[in-house]
UniProtKB/TrEMBL annotation, chain A:
Residues 46-236 form the DCUN1 domain. Transmembrane segments: none annotated. It comes from Oopsacas minuta. The lineage of its organism: Eukaryota, Metazoa, Porifera, Hexactinellida, Hexasterophora. Coiled coil: none annotated. InterPro entries: DCN-prot, DCN1-like_PONY, PONY_dom. Residues 24-50 are annotated as: Disordered. This is Defective in cullin neddylation protein. One of its GO terms (molecular function) is ubiquitin-like protein binding.
TrEMBL record, chain B:
This is Cullin-2-like. It comes from the Eukaryota. One of its GO terms (molecular function) is ubiquitin protein ligase binding. Residues 395-620 form the Cullin family profile domain. It comes from Oopsacas minuta. Pfam families: Cullin, Cullin_AB, Cullin_Nedd8. SUPFAM superfamilies: Cullin homology domain, Cullin repeat-like, Winged helix' DNA-binding domain.
Amino acid sequence: MGQNSTKPKKTQLSKPQVSEQIIETIPEMDLPVRSKKTSTPPPQSSKGDSLESFFLTYKDSDSDQIMAGGVERFCNDLKVDPTDFIVLAIAWKFNADQMCMFTREQFITGCSELNVHNIKEFRKMLPTLKSETSDKSNFKKLYYFTFQFGLEQGQRTLPIEMAVPLWQCVFLGAENRPKLLDDWLTFLQESSAKFISKDTWNMFYYFIETVQVDLSNYDETDAWPTLFDDFYEFQEDKKNTKTA
Amino acid sequence: MTQALNTQKSDTFDRKWSDIVRTISSVIRLEGVDRKKWNDSFSDVYALCMPYPVSYADTLNNYLEKFFEQHVLNIKYELDSCHRIHLLNQYSTQWNMFNDGVRYLNSLFSALNSRNAKKGMFDSRQANRLLLSLYGLLGDESKLEVSSMALKCWKEKLIIPLNERLTEAVIFEMQNDRQEVTYRTQIHDLVKSYIEVEAWQVMGQLFYYTHNLEESLLRAERDNYRNEAAARISDSSSTIGDYIQWAHRQLKTARDFGRQYLHAGTQIKLCREIEDRLLVDYLDRLKDEAVHLINKQDFEQLSVMYRLFKDVPEGLSGISDHLQTYYTEQGMNVIHKLKTSKNYQDYITNFLRIHTRYLEITTEYFSADSYSKEAMDHSLEKIVNSPEFTCDGAKAAEILAKQCDAILRKGSKIVSEAEVDERLTQLVTIFSYVDGKDIFLRFYSRNLANRLINSTYISQDSEENMIQKLKACCGYSYTNKLQRMLQDIRISEDLRIKFQLKAGEKNILKVLVLQSGSWPIQRRTAPSFQLPEDLTPLLMGFENFYHSQFSGRTLQWLHYRSTMEVSMTYLKNVHVVVATTYQASILLLFNKQDKVTLEDIMQLYCLPEEDVTRTLASLVESKILQEESQLGGTEYLLNMNYSNKHFKFKIASTMLKDTASDRNNVHHSINEDRKIFLQAAIVRIMKARKAQTHNQLISEVVEQSKSRFQPNISIIKKCIELLMEKQYLVRAEEDKTLYRYCA
């Protein structure tokens, strides 16, 4: 199910600049640096230089950002699936505010904070990043970040069809995939809910942390968002029909 | 020298003391003492207490103490040999005598008392003594007043040794014959003596009494009642009803007896004890009996039981729960039988009957106490808000609103103002139980608007009266808009008179100026509508007049609510028809032409086709117009043969009446209104509190909306979520059940 639901994201990613992708997948780091260096305005320190060229490798031809095509190439070079958790973790580290897009600042500051200057170093760094996110408080930050990351600009809620794959994705990185996640996602697809609010998103983390798998300690009079009440009812109904 | 002084001293003292002893021996026995003797002794005491030449006060004190000791011991011996039956009587006599005697002696020895006081050995100021005693500073040195000394002696030498016998005697006496205690006053005296002997103490005056006499007494009574209750309840020859009657009598007797002859604290404790033993111990069985009585409708008996349970914790609430269930069931049965009825009044009448009956029961048998009232109110609420209370698709709120309209509209059969008032009061009584007060308001304000605009109200006073009733029930904000509607009508009347003066006799325009926002009116007039030329100056005249009165206000004509009278002079018998603006506009065309088409009208008046079709249809339906199908389309002509038995009449309008969808609209918009109301309430609360936990917030919101409707928790939650999305609120990171207000 996870595969299916993530598909639309993939097609979205590969929309623009197919031709460019073919040309530029071969050079890795040093080759294009000199030729493109002239186009960048102020000369910087050597590390800054290499970051700049690193950025330029994936930069969109029309704007000063890395767009979907660039992100996809970046993922390819990292040898990771664009729908993989690690990409989400990178976006978190870069403090990206939109999917499939890094601004110059995000990319360069992000890389320098991670202390990587080219694709090789980046690739080497990935396991460290992975282990960093397995820390509970970091993971929680990343989880909260994911909602904001998934939002379309100007929107305050996440459409279900976006929320479901994001939930899938973010918990790929969790130490233990929450047992209730699948039930929850099934419920969402069957319910009439269309959007997920930030509060619901954040509370879900708290939900899986505190509520038992059989929901036996769920209390409807607590401050849960109504969607959880509905989920609780949904699960109870399922239980009852099973026993009946 | 000192030796001589001492002997001389003791000589004086002994001489005087022997005189004094004679006096006090008589006084303590309450034997008569002649005045001279009394005066002599008084002077002697005074002399002995004088510091010069030598003070004998301490010695006097000691001697006096010994005297009391001896006297009390004598009495004790007397009582020791006394038989149990007479003990109480004897004790009481002796005590009274002693107590009185001591009081006399206290005044005889006032010199000693005041000397002791002066010496600071005892301080009569209570506060000081209290402090001293608290710090343990009031040591052995302190000297008591003579009376206190005597009472202390009585306690130590008599009560303490005899305590067991005395207590036993009281218990025996009290249990011997509960109804007729022979030695009532004697018991009273005994109790009094236990307390009075400690009266001089600063604190803990009741300590000895409560821990000795009272405790034993209560213990004995507890055992006694426990046994008796057990015996009675298991006695198959008597019913629970008998038991209740018996318990009732027991409590009453104990209360009366306790009030008169025991200490007040003891009476309360005793009654509580009896309640516990007779009632609380058998609470479940008695409650079963209560259910039984309720089902039997034996309210007489239940009333006895109810009063009995008044002071028993959990007692009344248990009974009133059953009462509520009974009330609800009974009421629901009545309402259930009306299922097929399509007459609103049936529901009203039957509910009022139930209400009256329950009110009677509550006041007559349960003296309208809060528990029984609550039971009644809750059950009536349940009944009136139940799904069964639905007539022809209308729920209670709608039924009530319609009935109000029926009463307040012209043409109702009720003539006298008093009756109108009575009927309205009844409806408001029912209304107070209805959950959906906002639904009622919705229907009511629409009906009121119709009555006011069409001038079909019976009187403004009755309208005002009803609004006042609603205000009393739900508060100012509930009736605010209704009040303003009524006010608009009054103002419009003044305005009309002024306009009449200005415009002169020929004015035929009657305008109501309605504040927008107060009236439940949608602007349905097509914005493009062009008024027939004949009418324009008329309205312009008023507009000018109005603007001269109030500057800066905009007027908008609600043509679709307006009517005018059109004389149909072309007929054999002239008729006057009351037509809406659209209808009249169409009719006016026939002043100039014989036939009109739909397109003509649309073009001329700039009206949408829908409106024109509907208006034409209404005119054709009422046979004022005829339609004729032509090649180019339908043409409309006047029906020259029109006749109507009324001279003046109204065109039956087809554009109104569609109650079912109407009701849905109302309910839909009510739900929207409720959400807005709830959000406003949440924001108000949060703005004031800044932070609030989930449950507190919910309960405050429920509290605030109670006067309008019973909000559903999940809707409140949805509103909270909505406000979080709108960033009015935010959930606290550290406590997931806490919301914060975002300014």
